Amino acid sequence: MHRVWPAAASPRVFLGLLLLALALALAPGCSSAGGGGDNPGDEPAADGETADDGEDGEDPDDERVPVEVATIERGRIEEVLRFSTNLEAESEVQVFSQAARLVTGLYVEEGDDVRKGQTLLRLQDDQQRTQVQRVESQLAKASREYERQQSLFEQQLISEQAHNEATYDLEQLELALSDARRELGYTEVRAPISGTVTQRLVNLGDQITVNQHLFDIVDFDSIVARIYVPEKSLPRLAPGQSAQLFSAAFGGEARRGQVDRIAPLVDSRSGTVKVTVAIPRSADLLPGMYVTVELLTAVHESALLVPKRALVFDDEQIFVFRLREGAPEAAAAVSDVGKEDAEGDEDAQDGAAGGEPALTVERLLVRPLLEDRDNVEPAEGFAAGDRIVVAGQAGLKDGSEVRLVGTEG
Predict the structure, then answer these.
(1) Where are the beta strands (DSSP E) in 326-386?
(2) 407 pLDDT higher than 70
(3) How far apart are CA 24 and CA 137, in angstroms?
(4) What burial class does residue 277 get, using C-beta atoms within 10 Å of its C-beta: 0-12 exposed, 13-18 middle, 19+ buried?
(5) Distance CA 4, CA 24 (A)
(6) Which residue from 117, 281, 313, 386 has the highest number of Cβ atoms inside 10 Å of its Cβ?
(7) Residue 255 dihedral angles phi and psi, to the nearest 5°
């Protein structure tokens, strides 16, 4: 069955139906864009509010610097100077041979304690002993001849020249005997100091040469630690002052020592003074050990303790930032502005009326009296209970506004 449209009305009716279909198709999009729908989730945000305040509820426009603070307290502080060095023995010698001979006797071993002059080894000495005996015989004969010539000279029976020749022969043989005895002495190697044999480099039966290294001897009563202390600390040092030494070989256990000598001059290049710390043998420390030396120079029992992590260095000066609350007038001004911006919003007005005063910081110079590993004691300008910034101070200036984060330590 076919519909028949009136000829005059067909174009106008068709055009009207087409426009109606387009209007129905566009109706949902216009409702969403215009915010006129019935869905409560499509309501526009109120004036002065942002669509997303952040996951943690913080205001992204907040320009205050987040900082962590700590409270200054009183406590004990010890000024300790720490230095690292290797131990050395002031009395330490290497023993060398003075003759080329065969080793016929070896009398000490590594670890043995020896006295000064004690025989360490003996070399073959047959030839040297024979030479000493030969010269002694010749000297005895020359001595008798000299006595005879001296008697004749006193009686004026011989000339002065004959007397002088007899005197010369006697003196030459005395020198030859001295040389022979010295060569014989070279066949016995003796300890030049008292101490402990730390190294033996020769064996029985070895053929040694002149100036060959034979032994090392160390006096363990002469072990010292040489440290170099800045000249500013010199007034707090004195001979006899106690020192502590720490070595990895003994874990955290301290060994005792004391300041033995302080050099009478300052090194102009480094600005330091050489300090020699003596170590008793009972400390069981050995030459060559790497140790940390601590010198206790001063103790204050009730000092203001400023944590070192709060310090800010500017050239050669030290500063900290101390927390202070802003003036009440400033807080009231902030509150009034909040009321104007949130006029008609009861919640905004309540928050503005109860706003906290602005927190600011002041930059203070620190003149340290004493310092230890974790704290410094300021000379002036601080009191117990002051809150200082210990984290976040890198970007602060005097008067910067801050907000507190973290836990106060």
Answers:
(1) 359-366, 368-371, 375-378
(2) no
(3) 148
(4) buried
(5) 27
(6) 386
(7) -115, 145
Q: What span, in angstroms and rounded, lies between the C-alpha atoms of 296 and 114?
A: 37
CA separation for the pair 50, 47 (Å, rounded): 8
Does the pLDDT value for residue 113 go beyond 80? Answer: yes
Sign, CA torsion 281/283/284/288: negative
Largest CA distance in the chain: 190
Instruction: Name 162's Cβ contacts closer than 8 Å, sequence gap at least 6.
Output: 149, 153
CATH topology of domain 65-77+303-404: 2.40.420
Domain boundaries, the chain: 65-77+303-404, 94-218, 219-288
Q: How confident is the model at residue 157 (pLDDT cuts 50, 70, 90)?
A: confident
Please give the class, per CATH, of domain 94-218. mainly beta
* Residue at token pair 């000279």: 153
> Residue 312, SS3?
strand
Tokens of 22: 């387009």
Q: Is 338 exposed, middle or buried (0-12, 13-18, 19+ CB in 10 A)?
A: middle
Name the pLDDT band for 205 (thresholds 50, 70, 90).
Answer: very high
CB-side neighbour CA atoms (13 Å) of 222? 12
Tell me the average pLDDT across 243-267.
89
pLDDT averaged over the chain? Answer: 80
pTM of this prediction? 0.55
